[in-house]
Amino acid sequence: MREYFGIDFGTTNSAVVGNLGRHSTRYGVDDEQPFPSLVAVNCTTGTVDYVGRDVFDKRLQLAESCRIFSSAKMDLGEGKSWMVGPETWTPERVVAEVLKGLKKRVKERSHGASLEEAVIAIPVGFPPKKRNALRAAALEAGINIRGFVSEPTAAVFQSLEDLKQWPNVVVFDWGGGTLDISVVKIHGNVVQEIATVPKTLGGDDLDRILAEWAHAQILSQKGGSKLPFSGMDSRDQDMLLAACEEAKRKLANHDKAAISLQRYGEFGSVDLNLTDEEFISLMQPKIDEALATLEEGVIYRARLSFDQVHILMVGGSSKLKGLQDAMTKQKWQFSLSKNSDWHVAEGAARLASSTGKYVSAQNVGVRLCDDTVYPIIRAGQTVDHGKQSATFGLIEDASNARFVFVESDDPDGRLTSMNRTIGHLVVPAFGFTNEPIHLESHVDEDLLLHVTARSQAKGEKPAPVWTYPELRFSYALPETT
Known about the structure:
The protein is an alpha+beta fold. The chain folds into 3 domains: 1-158 and 337-353, Nucleotidyltransferase, domain 5 (2-Layer Sandwich), CATH 3.30.420; 203-282, ATPase, substrate binding domain, subdomain 4 (Actin, Chain A, domain 4, Alpha-Beta Complex); 357-476, Sandwich (Substrate Binding Domain Of DNAk, Chain A, domain 1). It is built from 11 helices and 28 strands. Strands 18-17-12-13-14-28-19 form a 7-stranded mixed sheet. Strands 1, 2, 3, 4, 10 and 11 form a 6-stranded mixed sheet that branches. The longest helix has 26 residues, at 276-301. The two termini are 16 Å apart.
């Protein structure tokens, strides 16, 4: 029997789960923790010394001899590179090493299975260039990406049987790099996304706040230098960030934590204590920001009240001290899984092994001159990746045809005040009245909506493209699953 794999490639940690029939396997480290998304590259040779848990456990020592790469997910597709010894390193190369580490973990712990193909979970609205870069990194690691799924949707499928008692579920997925809010309706084995809100706010930002605070305490204690944290050597910054991250983890179960370094640049040894009162005070603005994002998704996007939803909390940052107390104070219904680090990968593995289908959960179209909408894709339309086309006419003498794309509440495109503009496309034209403009659209295998348009009078010139990465879907699992 074939084993199907799901991967949660995270900013801070990554996880891979295999699904064999009705049995799933977490390919974690010895304590069933996920695989840290860390790579240590030797500063002299430019080659990999350690990956994953080995880097996490030895991070402070390795900082002396290695360049520690973390949070490479955030830099995917940005064109960045770093020279380490004689070697050039890119985010894609770093990500490939993390994925190779996951592949090795499966080989060591499975009974003959090999991680050659997987469904990978990604943040809501993950940009096209990042999806392409992730595919390239996976291929370098010898893994074919069978498909993408949003991280919140994958989390729902992991807990689908438990969540069916609530018709509306809000996934609060707070990881190392992003906060994703996804509001879904559950109808049997069908999960329908009705609203999503992506936000670049994660554990890395929280660690940075702690490091800035710790640096200020060090300046106060040591005196003399006024060097800001950003002016410290990158290795010293990394060591303090690592120490602050460890303190943050300890405070989840203790009322104080130490932040200690044997050497911190010109300041020498560091020994600080962080109490939970100080920690919550430092974190409160970001907790408030996270809850405001949650309210945006529930109240303004989904148009629901909090007494109509249940909140499922996943991701490492969802364990942040002070967060659950703040939600309890609001009298919101929520649950935090004991195994939240594995929720997303397990859901992705379940989808990898299913023969279900994606269906559009929203109406997207072109706003016409009379403010009605020409539909491009309708809610309820099965995604078959085929192209659809239409021809429009220019109504004025202009050098460009301007398409405005909207999300509409009405699948038939009738005039409605609830239309929301989601994008634009400018197409070069000759400018004569009724000049035909040909438009094509399709949803690709990465679940991106692509729209191209060109004047038929402009010949074979490259057509401008608009790509929409936030298309919402329903996903239906087979009834026998």
